[in-house]
Amino acid sequence: MKVSVDGIISTAKRMNSKIQTDEQSVGKKGKELKSDSIEIRKKINSRLILMQDELKAIQSSLTRNQIIKDGIFQLKEDRAEGFDNQNGILNGVRFEDEKVLYKFVEDSDLEGDLNLKINEIDDLIDLDISKLKRLQIEVENILASNLADSEVEAIRRNIETALSEIDYSSISSISNLSGDTVMSLIK
């Protein structure tokens, strides 16, 4: 084996170029990881903003449905007393200045369909509650990931606060929400 200066220099150049190539690929991977992380954070932040809007819509729907349920119980009480105030109840039960009870029962036979309407509104309330639970799970997963930016910290706190005020101990207690519980949901 013959060792020459030219051989040593060419070996050193090859090793140097290999080291530079390795350093460049490590640098590219670091940049790719950073850009992926930034992209994930942007998506999470966008989702949190959408989740806040979804929460407001669910809360509104839940409040509306609870008001309708209360109106149906008023109609049942009125039925027991002889239908003296049926039109007053139908026109008086409103949500956001809309006659929600009237729209909900307008094509029904009020003498026979009230129990069916109670079941229907209970199903709608249960659907709203399941949406709230899914939203809560999604928020908890995002919080566990710790990937949300500080820019949307207030949004995250609002969602977390609203969801923490809901008592999920049993579906029956939720579907029979008291007025105070409904008011806490619309904060």
As a whole number of angstroms, the C-alpha radius of gyration is 31 Å
Q: What's the rounded overall pLDDT mean? A: 76
N/C terminus separation: 85 Å
Number of strands: 0
Largest sheet: none
Percentage of residues in helical conformation: over 70%
Strand content: under 5%
Low-confidence stretches: 170-177
Number of DSSP helical runs:
7
Q: In terms of structural class, how would the helical and strand content be classed?
A: mainly alpha
Oligomer: single chain
Write the element-wise H/E pattern from the N-terminal end onward: HHHHHHH
What would you note in describing this structure?
The chain has 187 residues and is mainly α. The chain has seven helices and no strands. It has helices at residues 5-80, 86-92, 100-105, 114-145, 153-164, 171-175, 179-185. Helix 4 (114-145) packs across helix 5. The longest helix is centred in the first third of the chain and has 76 residues, at 5-80. Mean pLDDT is 76; it is low at 170-177.
